[in-house]
Design a protein that fits this description.
Radius of gyration: 17 Å
Distance between the termini: 49 Å
Order of helices and strands: EHHEEHHEEH
Largest sheet: 5 strands, antiparallel
CATH superfamily: Histidine kinase-like ATPase, C-terminal domain
Structural class: alpha+beta
CATH topology: Heat Shock Protein 90
Strand order of the largest sheet: 1-2-3-5-4
Mean pLDDT: 92
Bound molecules: adenosine-5'-triphosphate, magnesium ion
CATH class: Alpha Beta
Helix content: 40-55%
Low-confidence stretches: none
Length: 160
C-alpha cells in the first residue's frame, strides 16, 4: 500500500537569526492542524528552534546559507526535516551527548540535540562533512481521549 501523507509543506530561508522565530511560528501554524495541546506545540517549536539555530550558528558560522524546513502530517503525527548545506558534523554520536559543544565560548550549553530528542518522539541526524546536515524529528499528537485516559491514570496514582 502506498504510504499516505495528509499534508506537506516545504520552506527555504537564509541563515539569519531572525529567521529562527519565523521557523518556530511557521511550524506551529502548520502543526496546529493536528489540534495539539499548548504543551505539545511548545515542544515542537522548541525542537525546531534548536535545529534551526544549529544550522545558523554551526553549519554556516559567519556566512549566509540556505536552511530548509519541510514538514509532513500523517495521521496524528508530524514529521519535520531541517537541513543545511553547511560544514557537517564529524562525529554524530559525540554531538548528541548532553553538554557536548564545539562553541563553549559562545554561551552554548551543548543541550540542543538532547532537547530535540526529549521533546520529540524521535530524532535522527544525517551528516556529511563539507556537504551538510539533516535532522529528522517526529512527534505524535495525542488524541483527546488518550489525554483523558492519562488524566484518569494520574488520578489513580495520586489517590491514597
Ligand atoms: N547543523 C549543524 N552543522 C554542523 N554542526 C552542527 C550542527 N548542529 C550541531 N552541530 C554540532 O553539534 C554540536 C552539538 O549541538 P547541540 O545543539 O547539542 O549543542 P550546541 O549547539 O553546541 O549548544 P546549545 O544547542 O545548547 O546552544 C555543536 O556544538 C556542533 O559542533
Ligand atoms: Mg544547538
Amino acid at each position: 500500500m502506498k504510504d499516505h501523507i495528509d499534508n506537506e509543506m516545504n520552506l527555504e530561508f537564509i541563515s539569519k537569526s531572525s529567521n529562527e522565530s519565523f521557523a518556530r511560528i511557521t511550524i506551529a501554524a502548520f502543526a496546529a492542524q493536528l489540534d495539539p495541546t499548548i504543551e505539545e506545540l511548545a515542544d515542537i517549536k522548541t525542537a525546531v528552534s534548536e535545529a534551526v539555530t544549529n544550522c545558523i550558528i554551526h553549519a554556516y558560522e559567519n556566512r549566509i546559507g540556505i536552511v530548509k524546513m519541510s514538514a509532513k502530517l500523517k495521521d496524528n503525527e508530524v514529521i519535520i526535516e531541517i537541513s543545511d548545506h553547511g560544514k557537517g558534523i564529524e562525529n554524530i554520536e559525540m554531538a548528541k551527548e548532553p553538554l557536548y559543544t564545539t562553541k563553549p565560548n559562545l554561551e552554548r550549553s551543548g543541550m540542543g540535540f538532547t532537547i530535540m530528542e526529549s521533546f520529540m518522539d524521535s530524532m535522527e541526524i544525517e551528516s556529511v562533512v563539507g556537504l551538510g546536515t539533516k535532522v529528522t524529528m517526529s512527534k505524535k499528537i495525542k488524541k483527546e481521549d488518550e489525554i483523558e485516559n492519562d488524566v484518569e491514570e494520574m488520578d489513580f496514582i495520586t489517590k491514597d
